[in-house]
Amino acid sequence: MKQLLVIRHAKSSWDYSVLNDFDRPLNERGHHDAMMMASRLLESNITIDAFISSSANRAFTTATYFAEIFGEKENCIIKVPELYHAPAAVIYNVISKIDGAFNTIAIFSHNPGITEFVNELTDRQLDNMPTCGIFAVKANINHWKLFASSKKEFLFFDFPKHSS
């Protein structure tokens, strides 16, 4: 069985007009939400085998909070430049290449592709994947290359403004 955690980057800052979109950092709320959501996920007793992130600043920074809370170093995060503003087809392609030794992976990416992607996974539909939202599914497969064609089961959806 494989579990996939799809995580949208935390809230980013628009305070630096000279920065291009790729380099935008998290804002204060983004830093807070990333730490809070990573802690909330850790409390659910999920183990993450691989952290895979867009190489854009805001997504990678979000991934670093999750890795840190889960006791991992920043250098364990697998940077995948193709995840920057990736459509669903690209996300599926990235997943298909993941090492089968990893059973639970967390992918950090961007809208609008991430909302499109999660809406293709199960019958659970979102109008918009919120910043730092986590959408989790599992698939009864042994290899990630089978993920796209497999039946997925919805596990949970959580986001910063969701009251526990």
Q: What is the topological layout?
A:
Layout: E1 2-8, H1 28-43, E2 50-53, H2 57-69, E3 78-79, H3 88-96, E4 104-109, H4 113-121, E5 134-139, E6 152-158
Parallel strand pairs: 1-4, 2-3, 2-4
Antiparallel strand pairs: 1-5, 5-6
Task: Write up this protein.
By secondary structure, the protein is an alpha/beta fold. The protein has a single domain, classed as Rossmann fold. It is 29% helix and 20% strand. The chain has a 6-stranded mixed beta sheet with strand order 3-2-4-1-5-6, sandwiched between helices. Helix 2 links the parallel strand 2 and strand 3.
Q: Strand-and-helix sequence, N→C? A: EHEHEHEHEE
The total strand number stands at: 6
- Which structural category fits the helices and strands? alpha/beta
Biggest sheet strand order reads 3-2-4-1-5-6
Q: Average the pLDDT over all residues and give the rounded result.
A: 95
| Share of helix, binned | 25-40%
Helix segment count? Answer: 4
Strand content: 15-25%
Low-confidence stretches: none
What is the count of distinct domains? Answer: 1
Estimate the global geometry from the Cα principal axes.
globular
CATH class placement: Alpha Beta
- The Rg value, from CA coordinates, equals 15 Å
Q: End-to-end distance, in Å?
A: 27 Å
Question: From the coordinates shown, what is the CATH architecture?
Answer: 3-Layer(aba) Sandwich
